[in-house]
Amino acid sequence: MNAVDVVITEVGPRDGLQNTKSFMPTAAKKAWISAEAAAGVPAIEVCSFVPAKLIPQFVDAEEVLAHANSLRGLTPVVLVPNFKGCERALAAGAHRVMVPISVSEAHSMSNVRKTTAQAIEEFARMADLVKAQARDRRAQLVGACSTAFGCSLQGVVAEADVVRVALALRAAGADSISLADTVGYANPEQVKRLFRKVREAIGADFPIEAHFHNTRGLGLANALAAYEVGVRNFDSTLGGLGGCPFAPGASGNVVTEDLVFMFESMGVNTGIDLGKLIEVRRTAFAPLPDAELYGHISKAGLPKGFQPWSQAA
Amino acid sequence: MNAVDVVITEVGPRDGLQNTKSFMPTAAKKAWISAEAAAGVPAIEVCSFVPAKLIPQFVDAEEVLAHANSLRGLTPVVLVPNFKGCERALAAGAHRVMVPISVSEAHSMSNVRKTTAQAIEEFARMADLVKAQARDRRAQLVGACSTAFGCSLQGVVAEADVVRVALALRAAGADSISLADTVGYANPEQVKRLFRKVREAIGADFPIEAHFHNTRGLGLANALAAYEVGVRNFDSTLGGLGGCPFAPGASGNVVTEDLVFMFESMGVNTGIDLGKLIEVRRTAFAPLPDAELYGHISKAGLPKGFQPWSQAA
Q1: Span A7-312: which CATH code?
Q2: Do A265 and B301 touch (CB under 8 A)?
Q3: Do B304 and A155 touch (CB under 8 A)?
Q4: Is B197 an interface residue toward A (CB < 8 Å)?
Q5: Is B157 near chain A, with CB under 8 Å?
Q6: Burial class of residue A92, CB neighbours in 10 A (0-12, 13-18, 19+)
Q7: Which chain A residues are closer than 8 Å to B294 by Cβ?
Q8: Which residues touch A72 (CB under 8 Å, ≥6 apart)?
Q9: 3-state class of B174 per DSSP?
Q10: Do A266 and B190 touch (CB under 8 A)?
Q11: Does domain B1-78+237-313 have CATH number 3.20.20.70?
Q12: Cys bridge to B242: A143, B16, B162, B303, which one at CB 3.0-4.6 A?
């Protein structure tokens, strides 16, 4: 990976596709991943190792991951919901494994039928599995604190609970902690406060990542707030793929191309070619005609005289 | 006006309506203005004193302003493009007059067929007109630096030019300076830098305002950035009314209800009842069926357990 100021992880092939009705053909997934990697996207969450009977979209997880692993310079990420998924992912050659742990007990029960404590315990077993790998090919483990900014079932999530879960995940063996605004409840003030608190607890040098949704329109403002308190790793999806079905027009994840535009226009190097990225948006979703896409920069076009980081340097 | 942390000026009846195809009946305009004022919106830009043959939407400017002037607690604002418009506005009883001056020479010529210097000269004559008013009913004059963050005709706009125009407007008699991102080119880093520069030049205590468009999706992030460097006055439009015709889906102004949601969720008091405001969005545009509305919070709904400033206090 080249030196960049922020690392953007495209999570559309996982977070986006798990919300779409149609199955995206495996070849189309591979083409999408290849095209975004070619546009300079440094990391892509390519699939989820959930049982195919729960989410049929990911029946081809092994094949998609193998393809992503073959792409030079790309860091593929996979989601695993439990120990079994972790075993499958590692067997399939995963380099970076993201495990969501709901800080909200209500969400944890609803999502994986475990308490948060049980989920952390299972995370520790996954960490043992990873530690048993040969040192030179050991996977990285991301402990993601889901519903860190609030929960549509539980409502408010105590910040002390987020800190506690983050500390537990680090202690259990996480290589990185992610704070996820799973339902789009976060606001910029809260983002700054919570990231500061968690970094104070886990150590300012311990890797930390941000995962924002744009459900209530604050996605980019929240990303800006996180950037301002030192966060340098951000998830997003091309075209904001994955809108909430209950809120038409309220897009899902932060839109990758808009996030890249924001950072590049600020002089923050993402390493991503924005023109190429917008072109990927135009072509990648042809096999998914019912996908609702969001975002602004792809429609409005770049400002006249716009100099992205790469050109200005 | 009650003590609030930020003052949001609804500019939809002017900036929004000047971009819509249909004429909004005068009674509907009055009802919209009344309803937003009742929701606690402290200031509304209610019309433009341009010749009706140029923008027929504002043929009823006098009547709409008279209605707005009758509403207790509301500060009505009017736009005037030139000296004649200023005379009309003052004769009609305007309390707050906003005059846009394009920093971009190309935009100034295209918009009012004057150089920026000629426009500033005319602004000074308007200031004289205002100063001739009786002291206790003297109107406030806002000098708005249009295209301050870039221009779709000229491209880059030099920051030194913005500072120069702001200083000239203050010297000519402006009571307040506004920096306007007329075409949606601004980014948060630029917003902070330019507001800092202009405030350094005109004085940190001199009133300053921000007018952002959301054409490229950065509207709220830019508002956040401006807030962080001390700006406390923001323009926006309900439902983002006034989208650019060349960029479908790329909304026009910052969406008022989303801006209010951002600030209130951060614990920043806007004095506005968000529930009532969203209700206004539902009813105000019925007489304008071709209006394209944008925004997130009105579709996604408030977070569970959400406490706006007014409830938390």
Answers
A1: 3.20.20.70
A2: no
A3: yes
A4: no
A5: no
A6: middle
A7: 249
A8: none
A9: coil
A10: yes
A11: yes
A12: B16
